[in-house]
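User: For a benchmark we're assembling, each entry needs the component sequences followed by a predicted structure for the full assembly. Here are entry 17's components. Please fill in the structure.
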Amino acid sequence: MKQPKPKKCKNCKQTFKPFRPLQAACSFECAIELNNKKKAKEWKVEKAKRKRELMTLQDWIKIAQATFNKYIRLRDKALNNPCMSCRRPLGDKYDAGHFFNANNHWNLRFDERNVHSQCVHCNRHLHGNLLEYRKQLEFYFGISFLNDLENDAHVTRKFTIEEVQEINELYKKKIKEL
Ligand SMILES: [Zn+2]
Ligand SMILES: [Zn+2]
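Assistant: Structure for entry 17:
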């Protein structure tokens, strides 16, 4: 009979001579350890799956909003844009600010036209510095852009979990492509 070729133990990585076909571990101990590792891995996958299944629409919106906002910040950084409201440089710490507030305007929550980078002062302390925000949107994009945005802001929109997951994936992809 032909001697089996030596191979590397999948557990301890040492070379051994298999005594049966498809043998992955060098010894009984390594076989047990390998099996435990496999089970632990499977459990980890299962746990992640269960966690995902328990996630609510609200959970997904939070995740997708974080991804979307990150995209907006990186987009504006790449364009070297200043704060949308006060036109000062953004610096290292800045926010993605909705013009039409996300909680009251679901239709524009994930709309790139409605979200621009703002300095922390404008976004947080001046609650968006909306008067300046409006002026700048009109100046840079025009009055018809602003009118369209206004019309779209008052359209009712409801998201499903699947839609929000898709948005999250889309913006993850867009971040990579920047
Ligand atoms: Zn081994
Ligand atoms: Zn500002």
